[in-house]
Amino acid sequence: MLVHYLSSGPGDYDYIIVDSQAGVEIFGRGLASEFDLTLVVTEPTPKSVEVAKHGSKLAKDLGVKKLVAIINKVEVEDDLEFASHELKGYVDQVISIQYDNSVKNADKKGVLLLDLYPDSPVLHDINQVKQSITE
Question: Mind listing the domains of the chain with CATH numbers?
Fold first, then answer.
């Protein structure tokens, strides 16, 4: 109801971002029926990719216009190749975010990654996600 209100209400919103809990419940309940774009965040493991495939199918069935898979914690090229191969036909685009210990270190210290490690390569990867959203 909130997304519907915001998208048809009196205010002008270029973007409405909904961060749902992990899993496919948001799609199974039909809550994502008005989404233009869905970011499907997964890790390059068989179980995680299976959940991503299932969620992607449900999202397409609801009419989501664009699906972007975010492959998180990519350590080697084989990780990305595996996930990309498995998700072919389920998503429109695949973006990888490399594994970087600085993310964990910043989290342990309770500070932003950008503040502690402004040159982290992960920030470049996250910028690719931003560009995908804004295109």
Answer: 36-134 (3.40.50.300)
